[in-house]
Write a structure and sequence with these properties.
608 residues; alpha/beta; Glutamine Phosphoribosylpyrophosphate, subunit 1, domain 1; Rossmann fold; 8-stranded antiparallel sheet; 7-stranded antiparallel sheet; 22 helices; 27 strands; binds fructose -6-phosphate
């Protein structure tokens, strides 16, 4: 994840900016940069690699400005070199950015037609040019940023510094967090309160869609409709700096809300949006063309990510997938194909059963590819190749952002396998890659349903049992929904393939039974609609999660409807994970449960 810092100071700020960036190192990065104004003139220094490289550059060519912005970059669009490092600049401004600008390709083409030239392969540079174009047309910096923000799609945070404007910084947030720190005649911007810790304990987080106009003595917050708004300032205690929850009450909430950002980073690790192709970060020690089938093993939520991936590998790459929970796999003495592939999925990389399955497969001559979040873990070390998830540390015991990052990684791998095996054309690959690129923005949209979800969760918190239904890739999501609800609210819940309803569970349906139906618009929606009617006919209480208006199309009147944005059905299980997680979170909250530390559960299960 990238890190953003901005300082309106009293004296030279470059050293303080680098110190603040160091506090964001935990987010991971591969290049860094700083820009400041000296006598109103913009100068920047950037370096590939770690902050010590930037410090060397700064010691050779110091920056003395008392206002500046800095950035640690986790390469998304373009390689992690100096050219692509932030800040990006024109003669009018410098900008740093975290996240993905989804429509950057069309905006880039528009700017090229206007004769703008680009120095980097980043999506960030288009923002610098768009604002510059507005300023050249006579707009002030504030007006220019106000004109450009609505044109950007996706999930991102931005900080701007303007030539000649020695008392102005602008920050904007749509998705990734951004905080303003209030000093004494000084003002700060940072990706989180941790970065601002040494400067101030008075912090105001921007709300979703907000942007902020900072001077040394004032800050004005505006919402996405450009209305001036008030945002509360919090006093952040020193201990909170160590494990920052941002402006959330729980890690789980923070981690659910972080998903547009971390899924964006994970996708950027695997996709090249300019070519529309999957570009794996490391060479695979096997060829997908040589495989007859894949074995996947994992536990819990990671297992459900694997189950969804089974659909993708079989559909895109025509590769049969054998998948089992690791605790079963390790003892069932499964015959494995010569030089086959085992994919191991684990957030912690330390789960005992998953590790034992890996070792069994290794002994049986399998190539081991692991999808892990903790790259220093045992599973990562014992694998032949690691395709990491870039979720950042997951503190909440219930897995949320690790799950969606696992899905993002597995989706990219399945597309890659499909191409390698000749089952996907270049056009199909591009369509799927483009669909994946919309995920961070769609997740952001999904998060806006939180209020509706909170209302329905109050009802749900009174239930004794809950049923989740889904078909296709949304069947494993139904299983994941039930697991999430069980583990943090302790309400008994079951996930079922919707088509299985009439083979047994329909006997449970009555007016006390909430049935959560996950039904995006896809080729089998009508089948799920029939299942909903079966539930409705038995007075079951339906909670419909699908595209707005579709419950009506299906002829049912749900007890509640979570209206999701339209999307390619391929990416639906990744985006629909958001309401599923929020339902569990808010239901548990109404019941007064400890959502971050549910009873009997541990974050990393290193015993059998
Ligand atoms: C559920 C959850 C667990 C884990 C499982 C595997 O919310 O977190 O089901 O998914 O224990 O853990 P990892 O992914 O660390 O192997």
């Amino acid at each position: 994840m990238c890190g953003i810092v901005g300082i309106l100071g009293k004296q030279a700020v470059a050293t303080d900016i680098v110190d603040a960036l160091r506090r964001l190192e935990y987010r991971g990065y591969d290049s860094a940069g700083v820009a400041t104004l000296e006598d109103g003139k913009l100068s920047r220094r950037r370096a590939e690699g770690k902050l010590k490289n930037l410090e060397t550059v700064l010691s050779q060519r110091p920056l003395n400005g008392a206002i500046g912005i800095g950035h640690t970059r986790w390469a998304t669009h373009g390689r992690p070199n100096e050219e692509n490092a932030h800040p990006h600049a024109t003669d009018k401004l410098a900008v740093v950015h975290n996240g993905i600008i989804e429509n950057f390709r069309e905006l880039r083409e528009e700017l090229i037609e206007k004769g703008r030239r680009f120095e980097s392969q980043t999506d960030t540079e288009i923002v610098a040019h768009l604002v510059t174009v507005e300023m050249e047309a006579g707009k002030s910096p504030v007006e220019a940023v106000g004109a450009v923000l609505p044109r950007l799609r996706g999930a991102f945070a931005l900080a701007f510094l303007f030539t000649g404007e020695t008392d102005l910084l602008i920050g904007a947030r749509r998705g990734p967090p951004l905080a303003v720190g209030h000093g004494d005649g000084e003002m700060y911007l940072g990706s989180d309160a941790l970065a601002l810790g040494p400067f101030t304990s008075r912090v105001t987080y921007l709300d979703e869609g907000d942007w902020a106009i900072l001077t040394r003595h004032s800050v004005e917050f505006r919402d996405e409709k450009n209305r001036v708004v008030h945002r509360p300032t919090q006093i952040v205690t020193p201990s909170a700096f160590l494990v920052d929850k941002g402006n959330h009450r729980h890690f789980m909430a923070k981690e659910i809300h972080e998903q547009p950002e971390v899924v964006g980073h994970t996708l950027s690790t695997y996709l090249d949006p300019i070519s529309g192709r999957v570009a794996l970060p490391s060479t695979l020690p096997f060829d997908f063309r040589d495989l007859d089938r894949i074995t996947i093993t994992a536990c819990g939520t990671a297992y459900y990510a694997g189950l969804i991936a089974k659909y993708w590998f079989e559909q895109f790459a025509r590769l049969p997938v054998d998948i089992d929970v690791a605790s079963e796999f390790r003892y069932r003495e499964a015959p494995l194909p010569a030089k086959g592939l085992m994919i191991v999925v684990s957030q912690s990389g330390e789960t005992a059963d998953t590790l034992a399955s890996l070792r069994y497969a290794r002994q049986n001559g399998q190539h081991i590819l692991s999808v892990v979040n903790v790259q220093t873990s045992t599973i990562a070390r014992e694998s032949h190749v690691v395709t990491p998830t870039i979720a950042g540390p997951e503190m909440g015991v219930a897995s949320t952002k690790a799950f969606t990052c696992q899905l993002a990684t597995l989706a990219a791998l399945a597309i890659y396998a499909g191409r390698a095996r000749g089952h996907l054309s270049e056009t199909e690959e591009r369509r799927l890659v483009d669909a994946l690129m919309t995920v961070p923005g769609l997740m952001n949209e999904a998060l806006k349903r939180e209020h509706a979800i909170e209302t329905l969760s109050r009802e749900l918190s009174k239930a004794r049992d809950v049923l989740y239904l889904g078909r296709g890739t949304n069947f494993p999501l139904a299983l994941e929904g039930a697991l999430k609800l069980k583990e943090i609210s302790y309400i008994h819940a079951e996930g079922y393939a919707a088509g299985e309803l009439k083979h047994g569970p329909i006997a449970l349906i009555d007016e006390d039974m909430p049935v959560i139906v996950i039904a995006p618009r896809d080729g089998i929606f009508e089948k799920t609609a029939s299942n909903m009617q079966e539930v409705a006919a038995r007075a079951g209480r339906i909670i419909f999660i699908g595209e707005g208006g579709m419950a009506g199309e299906a002829g049912v009147h749900p007890m509640a409807e979570i209206a999701m944005p339209a999307m390619d059905p391929f990416v639906a299980p990744i985006v629909y994970a958001v309401p599923i997680q929020l339902i569990a979170y808010h239901t548990a909250l109404f019941m007064g449960k400890d959502v971050d530390q549910p009873r009997n559960l541990a974050k990393s299960v290193t015993v059998e």
